[in-house]
Amino acid sequence: MAKAEVLPLTMADIDAIEPLVRQADRDEITEALGIPMRDALKDGIRHSFKASKIVVEGSVVAVFGDAPVSLLGGLGVPWLISTVHVERYPRAFLAVCKPEVAEMLTRHPDLVNYVDVRNTVAIRWLGWLGFTFDDPEPYGPQGMLFQRFWMRRAPCA
Length: 157
Description:
Layout: E1 4-8, H1 14-17, H2 23-32, H3 37-47, E2 52-56, E3 59-68, E4 75-82, H4 90-107, E5 110-116, H5 120-129, E6 132-133, E7 137-139, E8 144-152
Parallel strand pairs: 4-5
Antiparallel strand pairs: 1-2, 2-3, 3-4, 5-8, 6-8, 7-8
């Protein structure tokens, strides 16, 4: 089985990654949220505690990170943008996801974000990771239906 590497994501990566973004992720960000993909990638790098790329056999399958809502609170915003290569390496991709979410929870006691209800693959993946979902509600400039998803760090015993 191919093995995934989690490497730092930099501004220099954007030109190569942007054209490879999966259509469902592009629809969510550019159509529903009204943000150009390049800007979303730059913002992710700029605002995340740790912005990373998942690379399998030389192909970037996804980029992700966790951004603080504010420097005062413990709320973190996890994000992930996948590329067309994720479908070729699903097991390698999934193998790194849960450990990365666990690491995010060491930085933030709570993780929260929104997912486009049309992005059913992402919703299944988020459920597999253990996120809880709220009911769909209008979100973003288009008022399209999104679901808030969240996870809370387990209390210390």
